[in-house]
Amino acid sequence: MSTVLQVENLARSYGEKNLFENISFVLSQSQKVALIARNGAGKSSLLNIIAGLEPCDSGTVTMFNRNSFEYLKQEPEMTLENTVFEEVYSHSNDIQRAILTYEHVIKGNDKDLIQNAIAQMDAIQGWEYETRVRQILTQLKLPDLDQKISELSGGQLKRVALAKVLITEPTFLILDEPTNHLDVEMIEWLEEYLSKSSITLLMVTHDRYFLDLVCNEVLEMENAAIYRYKGNYSYFIEKQAERLDIQNKETERAQNLMRTEQEWMRRMPKARTTKAKARIDSFYELQEKASNKIFEERMNLNIEGVRMGNKILEINDVSFKWGELAILKGFTYTFKRGEKVGIVGKNGSGKSTFLDIITGRIRPQKGHIQTGETIQYGYYKQQGLVFNDQTKVIDVVKEIAEVVRIGNGDTITAAAFLNYFMFPYPSHFQQVYKLSGGEKRRLYLVTVLMRSPNFLILDEPTNDLDILTLNVLEDYLSSFNGCVIVVTHDRYFLDKIVDHLFVFEGDGIIKDFPGNYTQYKFWRDELKRKAQLQKRVAVQKTEIPKPPLVTSNKLSFKEKRELGNLEQEIAALEEEKSAIETRLQSGNLTPAELKQQSERWAAIIPDIETKTERWMELSERD
User: What is the distance in angstroms between the CA of the first residue and the CA of the last residue of the chain?
Assistant: First the structure.
């Protein structure tokens, strides 16, 4: 395979913070690589350096075909006055300029200009390109192409940005958090599109299912170095644990040896011989290695929220509209102690509005909401970052509380709580403006959780958080004994945390589904399959009956044997399908097992249909 990207001895630091040093790696054609690191480790800086948007301190980046390269930044820059169509076609290649010109002259209705534009499109074979672009725009469900960029929501802006990088069909693509602000339907479409493409991909994402299905290699940035894993996310988790275990054992050996060396250093040897100096140099290297323990047993935080009474939250016949858009229609639900609910639905279906209604920020237009006297909300909002950038991290949390109550009446300090959420003690005295975007989101999350709420409402908590922080948050929520409502497009997170789903189906309809996201997707796909099968049967019934088969068209010996085998194969597949459905509905599977079983179920369905059609064909002639 030909080399697409070569990074050699790259280094970058900001002030005293060393992001990475002497890192090297190569990307070959058609490789799909995920870059994983904690927030603030320099992922976006590395991508910007590779894209040529940011300088490095040392090292080289060689991209072998920069003319066929695209970069989707985490926060794409767009011209607000452009229409969607103008923004999508804002690249400077000849075909896109010709298409943009053609669209403009069509609106002007000048026959001469139209004729010239058509001739230009013919000359550069622009019609096929435009058709392909229209297909991508349709798949991404973009709004009115004449709408101004300034009028779009976050999800719509992300889809426009995706269209811009995909329509050029680059051979090398860099994506920085491509799933942020996309709903699940769009994430699954992008997942399938990239999986089938032969494109070379370097991607930063926190969506673990997306990463697992799209990428075949993982680069991990840790302690300013790069570690490479030739497999998907599941493989990475397994091998990373092995690496950390080996590293920690080496660290423990170094710590034992360092105690001996420290005793020798304390004696301050007077003879500074060459051998003694070498031993002193070795001591400092050993000291650095001994402090390099990066995996530790995490404390088990059973956070003690405010005591919860019998009445929690009752929603009675609530309705609400934004203009003609119905958000809720006669919705009724009574929350029970300790339940964890996930909310899913397309962007714009009213999920965030629903959260504001139940917390009293928006009044319902019909019905009423009763909240228990003991309920104390912790509300993590999409737009909740309000910090003084000059404040130190530790002071931000100490303004809320000096200590946090945990189970059994114990407390931990605010500093220890920060450390639990991946803020090591030296970072506590940093000013907020020095934090990365993801670190600021994590700090905001800490300020919500440390108030000891007993009812957590989390609106897109997974956006901008690294995978390590998501694991910590998932552990926290698993032991949280209050209620949780979470809006997220992170399917892995939903599978791991929630008991059931509120599915926003549109037009104010909310379905209460008794299971996690993978179980819901399985149920939804099964409904679609049955509907398609019923439609096919209905079409077959309306067809004109075929004339009786002539005797000469009877089954051959080989076909009779095939018919018998098909009956056994179909029965075996149906039995396996039923067994999988039973396992999926049991609620006892891990997220990985749910994913594996759902994929097998999806593979069985078309196999059954194909074999059944062949069986019917042979049966008619038997």
Answer: 53
